[in-house]
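This part of the workshop introduces the protein records we will be handling. A record pairs a protein's sequence with a compact description of its fold. Backbone structure tokens are a discrete shorthand for how the chain folds in space. The question running through the whole workshop is how a given chain folds. The record below serves as our worked example for the rest of this section.
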Amino acid sequence: MFVFREERNFKIHVTIALVAIVMSILLPLTLIEWLFICSVIFLVLVAEVLNSALEALVDYIFPEYHPVAGKVKDMSAGAVLLSSIFAFIVGVMIFFPKLLAIFS
């Protein structure tokens, strides 16, 4: 996949997703918890792919700096940030009580 080879942030998101999947396998998750974990993983990955595509398109249309191009890139990156924050919140809500039960 092109985005995996070319985009460092996508690799970071995939690595974090793999950690979440391993934790999901090791901890007893319900079907609904699995659904939430998988959903937020794919939400973040899709947001990152769309962000990368939009940035490439903006760079193609505006090879020189343009304020509108900067705004579009910032908003696109903001979408990835928001989806990542949501994924983090879901992960904390699911994993923290389970880890707390194990280490308490």
Q: What stands out?
A: The helical segments are 2-6, 8-26, 31-61, 67-103. The chain has a mean pLDDT of 95. Residues 67-103 form the longest helix (37 residues).
